[in-house]
Amino acid sequence: MNLAEFQAAFQQAILADDDRLAPTFDETAEFCRKARIGVYIAAYRLRLAAVVAGDYPMLREALGEDAFEALTISYVEATQSSHANVRWYARDLPDFMAVQPRFRDQIAEQSLARFERALSDAFDAADAPVGSAEDLAEFGPETALRLQLEFHPSIRVLELTAGTTRAYESLCDGRSIESCGGDRELVLFWRQDGECFYRLIDDEEQFALKLAQDGYRFGELCQLLAFRVAGEDVSRRAAIFLSQWLADGLVSAIALDE
To answer: Could you tell me the pTM of the whole model?
Structure first.
């Protein structure tokens, strides 16, 4: 057995949690072999568990140590790391909770896990330029209806259980949380200057943001928004959205549709 074959067999034993797969050059040292490979098997799984705990600190607070440990053990046992960077390992934990008998009815906790996952995804998103109100000022009022926007890659909107944002903030402050459920809330996540942000948005802003992300011109956005918001000054409402998006650093570029 050459070095490459030895390394491949050693890795397979660790990933499979099976010391019988571990290679050895001394078949008489069976106990020693098992003890040695056992150290690596345990250390690997402890590392994966630490990644889960690091990605979901508020979920850990909400569930309590015993329940979170049980969830982590189940996830590690069922999920192998499929990426060279362990940073991505715990990404599927919210979906995993949804199918586990012990956790699938804990809707509020699943929603909290999705909230924390969205913050991590925003942090890991690609970089892009950030537009400003000054960039918008370069375009005259007569061109406003032809404006098209490009958005930062970190933007994500999630529909979560009502009260999830409040629960997250309470846990961050060390306060007890109220029960969530019964309705929904829309939460916008993004990154600006290396820091992740979030805020609640309403259905109209979600609708307008989706249109803008899909490449609709500002004038088309106003027309389509008017069907949803009868009797309001839609242009003013859309302008408020645009101003807020620029202030938040959501917009990467502004252009005119020729």
So the answer is: 0.83
